Protein backbone atom coordinates (compact mmCIF):
# COMPACT_ATOMS: atom_id res chain seq x y z
CA UNK A 1 0.00 0.00 0.00
CA UNK A 2 1.29 3.43 -0.94
CA UNK A 3 2.60 5.48 1.99
CA UNK A 4 1.58 9.12 2.42
CA UNK A 5 4.59 11.24 3.32
CA UNK A 6 4.72 14.89 4.35
CA UNK A 7 7.22 16.54 2.03
CA UNK A 8 9.75 19.04 3.32
CA UNK A 9 12.35 20.97 1.28
CA UNK A 10 15.81 19.51 1.56
CA UNK A 11 17.98 21.85 -0.50
CA UNK A 12 21.53 22.30 0.78
CA UNK A 13 22.11 26.03 0.62
CA UNK A 14 25.87 25.65 0.24
CA UNK A 15 25.48 24.03 -3.21
CA UNK A 16 23.72 25.31 -6.33
CA UNK A 17 20.22 23.98 -6.91
CA UNK A 18 21.28 22.51 -10.27
CA UNK A 19 23.65 20.18 -8.41
CA UNK A 20 21.34 19.08 -5.60
CA UNK A 21 18.30 18.16 -7.71
CA UNK A 22 18.20 14.86 -9.62
CA UNK A 23 19.43 14.70 -13.21
CA UNK A 24 17.76 13.54 -16.40
CA UNK A 25 19.10 10.00 -15.96
CA UNK A 26 17.04 9.78 -12.77
CA UNK A 27 13.70 10.02 -14.58
CA UNK A 28 11.53 7.04 -13.61
CA UNK A 29 8.00 5.84 -14.25
CA UNK A 30 5.22 5.97 -11.67
CA UNK A 31 5.16 3.18 -9.11
CA UNK A 32 2.88 2.18 -6.23
CA UNK A 33 6.07 1.60 -4.24
CA UNK A 34 6.81 5.34 -4.37
CA UNK A 35 5.06 7.35 -1.62
CA UNK A 36 2.35 9.90 -2.24
CA UNK A 37 3.66 13.25 -1.05
CA UNK A 38 1.58 15.79 0.84
CA UNK A 39 3.16 19.09 -0.18
CA UNK A 40 0.82 21.75 1.21
CA UNK A 41 -2.76 22.03 2.45
CA UNK A 42 -4.78 19.92 0.01
CA UNK A 43 -1.87 19.59 -2.48
CA UNK A 44 -0.39 16.15 -3.30
CA UNK A 45 2.31 14.87 -5.64
CA UNK A 46 2.62 11.46 -7.30
CA UNK A 47 5.98 11.06 -9.00
CA UNK A 48 6.28 9.59 -12.49
CA UNK A 49 7.68 10.12 -15.96
CA UNK A 50 6.03 13.50 -15.50
CA UNK A 51 4.60 14.09 -12.03
CA UNK A 52 0.85 14.17 -11.50
CA UNK A 53 -0.62 16.54 -8.92
CA UNK A 54 -3.87 16.55 -6.96
CA UNK A 55 -5.47 19.62 -5.40
CA UNK A 56 -8.41 18.79 -3.14
CA UNK A 57 -11.27 21.13 -2.24
CA UNK A 58 -14.56 20.70 -0.40
CA UNK A 59 -16.41 20.85 -3.74
CA UNK A 60 -14.27 18.39 -5.70
CA UNK A 61 -10.73 17.91 -6.92
CA UNK A 62 -8.37 19.24 -9.58
CA UNK A 63 -5.77 16.99 -11.23
CA UNK A 64 -2.78 18.58 -12.97
CA UNK A 65 -1.00 16.40 -15.56
CA UNK A 66 -1.85 12.69 -15.72
CA UNK A 67 1.28 10.78 -16.75
CA UNK A 68 1.63 8.18 -19.47
CA UNK A 69 -1.41 6.03 -20.21
CA UNK A 70 0.03 3.17 -18.15
CA UNK A 71 0.78 5.56 -15.27
CA UNK A 72 -2.69 7.15 -14.99
CA UNK A 73 -4.22 4.25 -13.00
CA UNK A 74 -1.20 4.26 -10.67
CA UNK A 75 -1.54 7.97 -9.97
CA UNK A 76 -5.30 7.53 -9.47
CA UNK A 77 -4.85 4.67 -7.01
CA UNK A 78 -2.44 6.78 -4.98
CA UNK A 79 -4.67 9.86 -5.00
CA UNK A 80 -7.65 7.73 -3.91
CA UNK A 81 -5.84 7.24 -0.62
CA UNK A 82 -6.58 10.84 0.28
CA UNK A 83 -9.69 11.72 -1.77
CA UNK A 84 -12.41 9.95 -3.73
CA UNK A 85 -14.29 13.20 -4.44
CA UNK A 86 -15.32 13.89 -8.04
CA UNK A 87 -12.54 15.22 -10.25
CA UNK A 88 -13.95 18.53 -11.40
CA UNK A 89 -11.01 19.67 -13.57
CA UNK A 90 -8.18 17.82 -15.30
CA UNK A 91 -5.53 20.26 -16.50
CA UNK A 92 -3.26 19.08 -19.29
CA UNK A 93 -0.24 21.37 -19.06
CA UNK A 94 0.90 20.36 -22.57
CA UNK A 95 0.16 17.71 -25.20
CA UNK A 96 3.05 15.31 -24.67
CA UNK A 97 2.02 11.74 -23.90
CA UNK A 98 3.57 11.80 -20.43
CA UNK A 99 1.04 14.50 -19.51
CA UNK A 100 -2.14 13.64 -21.41
CA UNK A 101 -1.83 9.85 -21.56
CA UNK A 102 -3.44 8.99 -18.22
CA UNK A 103 -6.42 11.37 -18.27
CA UNK A 104 -8.99 8.58 -18.74
CA UNK A 105 -8.12 7.24 -15.27
CA UNK A 106 -9.44 10.48 -13.76
CA UNK A 107 -12.26 11.45 -16.10
CA UNK A 108 -15.72 11.32 -14.53
CA UNK A 109 -19.19 12.28 -15.81
CA UNK A 110 -18.73 15.93 -14.84
CA UNK A 111 -15.01 16.36 -15.39
CA UNK A 112 -13.80 19.32 -17.43
CA UNK A 113 -10.58 18.60 -19.33
CA UNK A 114 -8.63 21.82 -19.77
CA UNK A 115 -5.93 22.32 -22.41
CA UNK A 116 -4.34 25.05 -24.51
CA UNK A 117 -6.11 25.88 -27.77
CA UNK A 118 -3.02 24.64 -29.68
CA UNK A 119 -3.10 21.19 -28.07
CA UNK A 120 -4.73 19.57 -31.11
CA UNK A 121 -2.08 21.08 -33.40
CA UNK A 122 0.66 19.66 -31.18
CA UNK A 123 -0.86 16.20 -31.17
CA UNK A 124 -1.37 16.31 -34.93
CA UNK A 125 2.35 17.06 -35.30
CA UNK A 126 3.17 14.15 -33.01
CA UNK A 127 0.98 11.83 -35.08
CA UNK A 128 2.59 12.94 -38.34
CA UNK A 129 6.08 11.98 -37.21
CA UNK A 130 5.12 9.08 -34.97
CA UNK A 131 7.16 6.59 -37.00
CA UNK A 132 10.18 8.89 -36.93
CA UNK A 133 9.92 9.14 -33.13
CA UNK A 134 9.51 5.40 -32.72
CA UNK A 135 12.83 4.96 -34.49
CA UNK A 136 14.66 7.44 -32.24
CA UNK A 137 12.94 7.25 -28.85
CA UNK A 138 14.01 3.72 -27.84
CA UNK A 139 17.65 4.76 -27.56
CA UNK A 140 16.93 7.69 -25.26
CA UNK A 141 13.92 6.37 -23.31
CA UNK A 142 14.42 2.58 -23.25
CA UNK A 143 12.37 1.84 -20.12
CA UNK A 144 9.38 3.96 -21.09
CA UNK A 145 9.29 2.73 -24.68
CA UNK A 146 9.59 -0.91 -23.63
CA UNK A 147 6.73 -0.67 -21.13
CA UNK A 148 4.54 1.30 -23.54
CA UNK A 149 5.14 -1.35 -26.20
CA UNK A 150 3.96 -4.04 -23.80
CA UNK A 151 0.88 -1.96 -22.96
CA UNK A 152 0.13 -1.43 -26.66
CA UNK A 153 0.31 -5.15 -27.39
CA UNK A 154 -1.96 -5.96 -24.44
CA UNK A 155 -4.50 -3.35 -25.53
CA UNK A 156 -4.58 -4.54 -29.13
CA UNK A 157 -4.88 -8.18 -28.01
CA UNK A 158 -8.16 -7.16 -26.36
CA UNK A 159 -9.36 -5.56 -29.59
CA UNK A 160 -8.64 -2.02 -28.40
CA UNK A 161 -6.59 0.70 -30.05
CA UNK A 162 -3.03 1.40 -29.01
CA UNK A 163 -2.50 2.40 -25.40
CA UNK A 164 -1.36 5.88 -26.50
CA UNK A 165 -4.08 8.41 -25.79
CA UNK A 166 -4.95 11.72 -27.38
CA UNK A 167 -6.21 14.64 -25.34
CA UNK A 168 -9.98 15.14 -25.29
CA UNK A 169 -10.30 18.69 -23.93
CA UNK A 170 -13.67 20.18 -23.09
CA UNK A 171 -12.21 23.64 -22.38
CA UNK A 172 -9.58 25.23 -24.63
CA UNK A 173 -7.63 28.20 -23.27
CA UNK A 174 -6.48 31.11 -25.39
CA UNK A 175 -5.10 33.27 -22.58
CA UNK A 176 -6.32 32.24 -19.11
CA UNK A 177 -9.13 30.67 -17.11
CA UNK A 178 -9.90 31.84 -13.57
CA UNK A 179 -12.29 30.01 -11.26
CA UNK A 180 -12.96 29.30 -7.61
CA UNK A 181 -13.65 25.75 -6.42
CA UNK A 182 -14.44 24.90 -2.82
CA UNK A 183 -13.13 28.26 -1.68
CA UNK A 184 -9.80 27.89 -3.50
CA UNK A 185 -8.89 30.25 -6.34
CA UNK A 186 -7.29 28.82 -9.47
CA UNK A 187 -5.76 30.58 -12.48
CA UNK A 188 -4.83 28.50 -15.53
CA UNK A 189 -2.55 30.62 -17.70
CA UNK A 190 -1.30 30.07 -21.26
CA UNK A 191 2.44 30.51 -21.76
CA UNK A 192 4.22 31.86 -24.86
CA UNK A 193 7.09 29.39 -24.76
CA UNK A 194 8.31 26.09 -23.37
CA UNK A 195 8.73 22.54 -24.60
CA UNK A 196 5.63 22.92 -26.78
CA UNK A 197 3.42 25.63 -28.29
CA UNK A 198 0.60 24.65 -25.92
CA UNK A 199 2.10 25.13 -22.46
CA UNK A 200 -0.12 25.99 -19.49
CA UNK A 201 0.67 26.80 -15.87
CA UNK A 202 -1.68 26.59 -12.89
CA UNK A 203 -1.51 29.22 -10.15
CA UNK A 204 -3.08 28.98 -6.69
CA UNK A 205 -2.63 32.63 -5.70
CA UNK A 206 -3.89 32.31 -2.11
CA UNK A 207 -1.34 29.59 -1.36
CA UNK A 208 1.53 31.00 -3.43
CA UNK A 209 1.65 27.70 -5.35
CA UNK A 210 2.53 27.48 -9.04
CA UNK A 211 2.51 24.40 -11.31
CA UNK A 212 4.50 24.93 -14.51
CA UNK A 213 4.38 21.43 -16.01
CA UNK A 214 7.33 21.04 -18.37
CA UNK A 215 7.31 24.64 -19.56
CA UNK A 216 10.71 25.05 -17.87
CA UNK A 217 11.93 21.82 -19.43
CA UNK A 218 12.30 18.47 -17.69
CA UNK A 219 15.05 19.79 -15.42
CA UNK A 220 15.15 23.01 -13.44
CA UNK A 221 17.35 25.05 -13.41
CA UNK A 222 19.07 23.70 -16.53
CA UNK A 223 19.60 25.02 -20.05
CA UNK A 224 16.49 24.08 -22.07
CA UNK A 225 16.68 21.87 -25.11
CA UNK A 226 15.67 24.36 -27.79
CA UNK A 227 15.72 21.58 -30.36
CA UNK A 228 15.74 18.04 -29.03
CA UNK A 229 18.00 15.28 -30.28
CA UNK A 230 15.11 12.82 -30.41
CA UNK A 231 13.29 15.16 -32.81
CA UNK A 232 10.63 17.77 -32.05
CA UNK A 233 9.49 21.21 -33.07
CA UNK A 234 12.18 23.88 -32.68
CA UNK A 235 11.63 25.89 -29.51
CA UNK A 236 12.37 29.55 -29.94
CA UNK A 237 14.52 31.20 -27.26
CA UNK A 238 12.62 34.50 -26.98
CA UNK A 239 9.25 32.92 -26.06
CA UNK A 240 11.10 30.83 -23.47
CA UNK A 241 12.52 34.04 -21.99
CA UNK A 242 9.04 35.60 -21.95
CA UNK A 243 7.70 32.54 -20.13
CA UNK A 244 10.41 32.90 -17.48
CA UNK A 245 9.38 36.53 -17.04
CA UNK A 246 5.70 35.66 -16.55
CA UNK A 247 6.56 33.09 -13.90
CA UNK A 248 8.88 35.50 -12.11
CA UNK A 249 6.13 38.13 -12.05
CA UNK A 250 3.88 35.80 -10.03
CA UNK A 251 6.55 35.45 -7.31
CA UNK A 252 5.50 31.94 -6.22
CA UNK A 253 6.49 30.56 -2.82
CA UNK A 254 6.30 26.96 -4.05
CA UNK A 255 7.18 25.92 -7.60
CA UNK A 256 6.02 22.56 -8.97
CA UNK A 257 7.84 21.61 -12.17
CA UNK A 258 7.07 18.56 -14.29
CA UNK A 259 9.72 16.39 -12.69
CA UNK A 260 11.21 15.71 -9.29
CA UNK A 261 10.80 17.75 -6.12
CA UNK A 262 9.07 21.12 -5.75
CA UNK A 263 11.24 24.17 -5.17
CA UNK A 264 10.35 26.06 -1.99
CA UNK A 265 11.09 29.66 -1.07
CA UNK A 266 10.25 32.78 -3.02
CA UNK A 267 13.77 34.18 -2.86
CA UNK A 268 15.35 30.92 -4.07
CA UNK A 269 12.88 30.57 -6.94
CA UNK A 270 13.42 34.18 -8.04
CA UNK A 271 17.20 33.79 -7.90
CA UNK A 272 17.35 30.50 -9.80
CA UNK A 273 14.72 31.35 -12.41
CA UNK A 274 16.18 34.82 -12.90
CA UNK A 275 19.62 33.33 -13.54
CA UNK A 276 18.15 30.84 -16.01
CA UNK A 277 16.31 33.60 -17.88
CA UNK A 278 19.46 35.71 -18.06
CA UNK A 279 21.57 32.71 -19.18
CA UNK A 280 19.23 31.90 -22.08
CA UNK A 281 19.12 35.58 -23.06
CA UNK A 282 22.92 35.77 -22.95
CA UNK A 283 23.29 32.74 -25.23
CA UNK A 284 20.64 34.11 -27.59
CA UNK A 285 22.16 37.59 -27.78
CA UNK A 286 25.75 36.35 -28.19
CA UNK A 287 24.67 33.97 -30.95
CA UNK A 288 22.83 36.71 -32.83
CA UNK A 289 25.79 39.05 -32.36
CA UNK A 290 28.14 36.42 -33.79
CA UNK A 291 25.84 35.77 -36.74
CA UNK A 292 25.80 39.47 -37.56
CA UNK A 293 29.60 39.51 -37.41
CA UNK A 294 29.75 36.74 -40.01
CA UNK A 295 30.89 33.93 -37.70
CA UNK A 296 29.79 30.41 -38.53
CA UNK A 297 27.72 28.28 -36.19
CA UNK A 298 30.53 25.90 -35.22
CA UNK A 299 32.83 28.76 -34.29
CA UNK A 300 30.09 30.15 -32.05
CA UNK A 301 29.52 26.72 -30.48
CA UNK A 302 33.23 26.69 -29.56
CA UNK A 303 33.55 30.31 -28.46
CA UNK A 304 30.40 31.20 -26.50
CA UNK A 305 30.49 30.32 -22.81
CA UNK A 306 28.32 31.45 -19.93
CA UNK A 307 30.02 33.85 -17.50
CA UNK A 308 30.38 32.45 -14.00
CA UNK A 309 27.44 34.39 -12.54
CA UNK A 310 25.12 32.91 -15.20
CA UNK A 311 26.17 29.28 -14.88
CA UNK A 312 23.18 26.91 -15.09
CA UNK A 313 22.89 23.15 -15.35
CA UNK A 314 23.51 21.29 -18.61
CA UNK A 315 22.07 17.90 -17.68
CA UNK A 316 19.42 18.14 -20.41
CA UNK A 317 20.16 20.94 -22.85
CA UNK A 318 23.61 22.45 -23.30
CA UNK A 319 24.95 25.83 -24.35
CA UNK A 320 26.41 24.58 -27.67
CA UNK A 321 23.12 22.86 -28.56
CA UNK A 322 21.20 26.03 -27.73
CA UNK A 323 23.53 28.04 -29.98
CA UNK A 324 22.93 25.63 -32.84
CA UNK A 325 19.14 25.75 -32.32
CA UNK A 326 19.10 29.56 -32.22
CA UNK A 327 21.24 29.73 -35.38
CA UNK A 328 18.95 27.37 -37.28
CA UNK A 329 15.87 29.14 -35.95
CA UNK A 330 17.01 32.36 -37.57
CA UNK A 331 19.08 31.19 -40.53
CA UNK A 332 17.75 27.78 -41.53
CA UNK A 333 19.75 24.90 -42.97
CA UNK A 334 22.07 26.62 -45.48
CA UNK A 335 25.54 27.19 -44.00
CA UNK A 336 26.84 29.21 -46.98
CA UNK A 337 29.91 26.99 -47.17
CA UNK A 338 29.42 24.60 -50.07
CA UNK A 339 27.37 24.21 -53.24
CA UNK A 340 26.67 20.64 -52.12
CA UNK A 341 24.45 21.96 -49.32
CA UNK A 342 21.87 22.74 -52.02
CA UNK A 343 21.76 19.14 -53.24
CA UNK A 344 20.91 15.70 -51.77
CA UNK A 345 24.51 14.44 -51.65
CA UNK A 346 26.02 14.92 -48.17
CA UNK A 347 29.76 14.69 -47.60
CA UNK A 348 29.32 11.21 -46.10
CA UNK A 349 28.48 9.98 -49.61
CA UNK A 350 32.17 10.26 -50.54
CA UNK A 351 33.57 8.79 -47.30
CA UNK A 352 34.02 5.38 -48.93
CA UNK A 353 35.90 6.99 -51.86
CA UNK A 354 38.17 8.88 -49.45
CA UNK A 355 38.66 5.77 -47.37
CA UNK A 356 39.76 3.72 -50.34
CA UNK A 357 42.08 6.48 -51.62
CA UNK A 358 43.80 7.04 -48.28
CA UNK A 359 43.52 3.45 -47.07
CA UNK A 360 41.81 2.36 -43.83
CA UNK A 361 45.18 1.57 -42.22
CA UNK A 362 46.74 5.04 -42.51
CA UNK A 363 43.40 6.64 -41.57
CA UNK A 364 43.15 4.47 -38.45
CA UNK A 365 46.75 5.31 -37.53
CA UNK A 366 46.09 9.03 -37.84
CA UNK A 367 42.80 8.73 -35.97
CA UNK A 368 44.63 7.01 -33.12
CA UNK A 369 47.25 9.77 -33.10
CA UNK A 370 44.57 12.46 -32.96
CA UNK A 371 42.91 10.68 -30.06
CA UNK A 372 46.28 10.66 -28.30
CA UNK A 373 46.49 14.41 -28.86
CA UNK A 374 43.15 14.87 -27.07
CA UNK A 375 41.08 15.29 -30.23
CA UNK A 376 38.39 12.57 -30.02
CA UNK A 377 36.01 14.27 -32.45
CA UNK A 378 38.63 14.55 -35.17
CA UNK A 379 39.50 10.90 -34.51
CA UNK A 380 35.85 9.91 -34.98
CA UNK A 381 35.69 11.76 -38.30
CA UNK A 382 38.68 9.84 -39.66
CA UNK A 383 37.50 6.52 -38.24
CA UNK A 384 34.13 7.00 -39.95
CA UNK A 385 35.88 7.60 -43.29
CA UNK A 386 37.94 4.43 -42.82
CA UNK A 387 34.88 2.37 -41.81
CA UNK A 388 32.94 3.58 -44.83
CA UNK A 389 35.59 1.93 -46.97
CA UNK A 390 35.99 -1.17 -44.78
CA UNK A 391 33.13 -1.56 -42.24
CA UNK A 392 34.88 -4.27 -40.24
CA UNK A 393 38.28 -2.59 -40.01
CA UNK A 394 39.35 -3.47 -36.47
CA UNK A 395 41.84 -0.65 -35.72
CA UNK A 396 39.26 1.92 -36.88
CA UNK A 397 36.53 0.32 -34.75
CA UNK A 398 38.86 0.24 -31.75
CA UNK A 399 39.68 3.94 -32.15
CA UNK A 400 36.00 4.76 -32.71
CA UNK A 401 35.11 3.02 -29.44
CA UNK A 402 37.97 4.63 -27.51
CA UNK A 403 37.04 8.11 -28.79
CA UNK A 404 33.43 7.65 -27.71
CA UNK A 405 34.54 6.45 -24.29
CA UNK A 406 36.67 9.60 -23.97
CA UNK A 407 33.66 11.77 -24.86
CA UNK A 408 31.46 9.87 -22.42
CA UNK A 409 33.96 10.44 -19.60
CA UNK A 410 34.09 14.16 -20.40
CA UNK A 411 30.34 14.75 -20.90
CA UNK A 412 27.95 15.94 -18.17
CA UNK A 413 27.44 12.70 -16.21
CA UNK A 414 23.67 13.07 -15.82
CA UNK A 415 22.81 14.22 -19.34
CA UNK A 416 20.76 11.35 -20.80
CA UNK A 417 21.28 12.50 -24.40
CA UNK A 418 25.06 12.17 -24.16
CA UNK A 419 24.80 9.03 -22.05
CA UNK A 420 22.41 7.08 -24.25
CA UNK A 421 23.81 8.26 -27.58
CA UNK A 422 27.45 7.62 -26.71
CA UNK A 423 26.85 4.29 -24.97
CA UNK A 424 24.66 3.22 -27.90
CA UNK A 425 27.45 3.98 -30.36
CA UNK A 426 29.99 2.15 -28.20
CA UNK A 427 27.78 -0.95 -27.92
CA UNK A 428 27.05 -0.98 -31.65
CA UNK A 429 30.76 -0.66 -32.52
CA UNK A 430 31.64 -3.39 -30.01
CA UNK A 431 29.17 -5.74 -31.72
CA UNK A 432 30.73 -4.94 -35.08
CA UNK A 433 34.20 -5.50 -33.62
CA UNK A 434 33.17 -8.90 -32.21
CA UNK A 435 31.79 -9.91 -35.60
CA UNK A 436 34.84 -8.80 -37.57
Which short descriptors sum up this protein?
43% helix, 6-stranded mixed sheet, 2 domains, alpha/beta, 436 residues, Metallo-beta-lactamase, Chain A, 8-stranded mixed sheet
Task: Characterise the protein shown here.
The chain is of the alpha/beta class. The protein has two domains: 4-273, Metallo-beta-lactamase domain (Metallo-beta-lactamase, Chain A, 4-Layer Sandwich); 339-435, no CATH class. Helix content is 43%, strand content 15%. It is built from 15 helices and 14 strands. The strands form two sheets. An eight-stranded mixed sheet has the order 1-2-3-4-5-6-7-8, covered by helices on one side. Strand 4 and strand 5 form a beta hairpin. Helix 5 packs across helix 6. The longest helix has 27 residues, at 266-292. The termini are far apart. The mean pLDDT is 92.
Mean pLDDT, nearest integer? Answer: 92
Number of helices: 15
Structural class: alpha/beta
CATH architecture of the largest domain: 4-Layer Sandwich
Low-confidence stretches: none
Percent in helix: 40-55%
Termini Cα gap: 52 Å
- Rg computed from alpha carbons, rounded to a whole number of angstroms: 24 Å
Write the H/E string, N to C: EHEEEEHEHEHHHEEEEEHEEHHHHHHHH
Strand content: 5-15%
CATH class of the largest domain: Alpha Beta
> In CATH, what is the homologous superfamily of the largest domain?
Metallo-beta-lactamase domain
Amino acid sequence: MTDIVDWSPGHANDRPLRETRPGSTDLAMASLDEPLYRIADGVYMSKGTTNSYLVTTQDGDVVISTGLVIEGPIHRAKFDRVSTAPVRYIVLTQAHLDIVGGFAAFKGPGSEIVAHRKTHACQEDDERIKGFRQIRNPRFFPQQMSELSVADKAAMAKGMAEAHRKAEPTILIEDRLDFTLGGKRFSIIALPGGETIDSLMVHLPDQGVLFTGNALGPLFPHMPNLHTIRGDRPRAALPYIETYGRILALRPDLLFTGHFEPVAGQALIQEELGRLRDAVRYVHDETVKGMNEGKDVHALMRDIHLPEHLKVGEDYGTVPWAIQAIWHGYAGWFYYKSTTELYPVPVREVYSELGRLAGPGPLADRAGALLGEGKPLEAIHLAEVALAAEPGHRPSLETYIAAHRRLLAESPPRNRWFLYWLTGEIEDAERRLAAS
